[in-house]
Amino acid sequence: MDYTFWFVNWFSFIFSLLLLFLLIFNINQLGSIADFAIRINAILVVISFIICFYTMVSKEKTSITCEDGWISYSEGSGTCSHHGGIDHRNYKYWFDK
After folding, report:
1. CA of 71: how far to CAs of 23, 25, 81, 97, in Å?
2. Could you give the C-alpha distances from 3 to 6, 34, 48, 52, 55, in angstroms and in order?
3. Which residue has the higher pLDDT, 35 or 54?
4. Predicted local confidence at residue 1, as pLDDT
5. Measured CA angle at 75 (ends 85, 61), to 5 deg
6. How buried is 36 (Cβ within 10 angstroms: 0-12 exposed, 13-18 middle, 19+ buried)?
7. What is the number of other CB atoms lying within 10 angstroms of the CB of residue 52?
8. Predicted TM-score (pTM) of this structure
9. pLDDT digit string (tens) for 38-61?
10. Among 86, 97, 75, 92, CA closest to 5
11. Any bridge partners for residue 63, and if so which?
């Protein structure tokens, strides 16, 4: 599993959604800045969703890590067959370039 992708993108998206719900449920306590705060946070939700989607579709597979730690650049059938099988795939994202 690629934790960089999940942490950087989906964490920010879920955080902005939770913040939006907190703002909506506490609307009476915010007073005059309530409308502005909800609009700004709704924009953050949309932007973070766009970043998540772009990151998901623009990733490039760079290599495969086998169960024993061997790194293979092969993508064919039998990759890591003598190394215990595939542990995980390694990707390169737009923010790594």
Report:
1. 47, 49, 12, 20
2. 5, 35, 17, 13, 13
3. 54
4. 46
5. 100
6. exposed
7. 19
8. 0.58
9. 778 788 878 878 887 888 888 888
10. 92
11. 90
Let me know: does 34 contact 72? Beta carbons within 8 Å: no
Q: Which residue has the tokens 């067959």?
A: 81
Task: Quickly count: other Cβ atoms within 10 Å of residue 35's Cβ.
Answer: 10
> Could you tell me if 20 and 42 are in contact, meaning their C-beta atoms sit under 8 angstroms apart?
yes
- The 3-state secondary structure of the chain reads CCHHHHHHHHHHHHHHHHHHHHHHHCHHHHHHHHHHHHHHHHHHHHHHHHHHHHHHHCCEEEEEEECCCCEECCCCCCCCCCCCCEEEEEEECHHHC
Please give the single-letter amino acid code of residue 96: D
The Cα 20–Cα 40 span in angstroms is 9
